[in-house]
């Protein structure tokens, strides 16, 4: 459903901005809709944004090898990569000093 070319332009391309739905019709139904919508949706979206921001700010990231990232997905209830992404992270120097004190 979330890669339906009738619903999304360039459905198979990585475009995270398509899920920035403030003021638009919702096409993503991960949190349900209407009366049965998840009451924690706003908190979840903020938590993910905050956590992702911290991971980007505090760490330098590298792939384990030079192969392209395999974007194929598992066909389970939750979306996950067929082959999990392996990455290495290293604390950025400023944050390493702060965390050691």
UniProtKB/TrEMBL annotation:
UniProt entry tagged with the keyword Transmembrane: no
Keywords from the UniProt entry: Heme, Iron, Metal-binding, Monooxygenase, Oxidoreductase
GO molecular function: heme binding; iron ion binding; monooxygenase activity; oxidoreductase activity, acting on paired donors, with incorporation or reduction of molecular oxygen
Binding annotation for heme: 38
Keyword Heme recorded: yes
Listed SUPFAM superfamilies: Cytochrome P450 (SSF48264)
Cofactor: heme
Entries under InterPro entries matching the protein: Cyt_P450 (IPR001128), Cyt_P450_CS (IPR017972), Cyt_P450_E_grp-I (IPR002401), Cyt_P450_sf (IPR036396), Plant_Cytochrome_P450_Monoox (IPR050651)
Name of the featured protein: Uncharacterized protein
High-level lineage: Eukaryota, Viridiplantae, Streptophyta, Embryophyta, Tracheophyta
């Amino acid at each position: 459903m979330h890669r339906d070319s009738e619903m999304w332009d360039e459905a198979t391309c990585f475009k995270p901005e398509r899920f920035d739905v403030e003021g638009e019709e919702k096409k993503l139904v991960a949190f349900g809709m209407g009366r049965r919508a998840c009451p924690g949706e706003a908190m979840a979206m903020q938590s993910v944004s905050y956590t992702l921001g911290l991971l980007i700010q505090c760490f330098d990231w590298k792939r384990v090898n030079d192969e392209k990232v395999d974007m194929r997905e598992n066909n389970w209830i939750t979306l996950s990569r067929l082959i999990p992404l392996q990455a290495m992270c290293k604390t950025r120097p400023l944050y390493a000093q702060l965390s050691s004190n």
